[in-house]
Amino acid sequence: MSRADPFPMSNRILYMTMHNPCGRRYGAQFRALHVGRALSRVGTVTLVLVSAAEVSSGEIDAAGQEFDDVTPCRAGRAMGPAGQWPRRLSG
Description:
Layout lengths: L11 E6 L9 H14 L3 E8 L5 H10 L2 E6 L17
Parallel strand pairs: 1-2, 2-3
């Protein structure tokens, strides 16, 4: 009797990270790379690079060699002026 594959490659995975898996080498980057590679084993991975700064085309190309689809996403500022959280409007 044959068993069905528990992870068919028709799985689509959205992987969002603030650390470019194929960028400059440091601990969080290394973790992001290996998490992405593990996800690639169970489905088609769309990588979304969330960054406060502009993501270069070279970084996108490098990540595109590792993952099926790469989309940069520029994040807005969560903190207000002087590093304070925005105050809630009364009402």
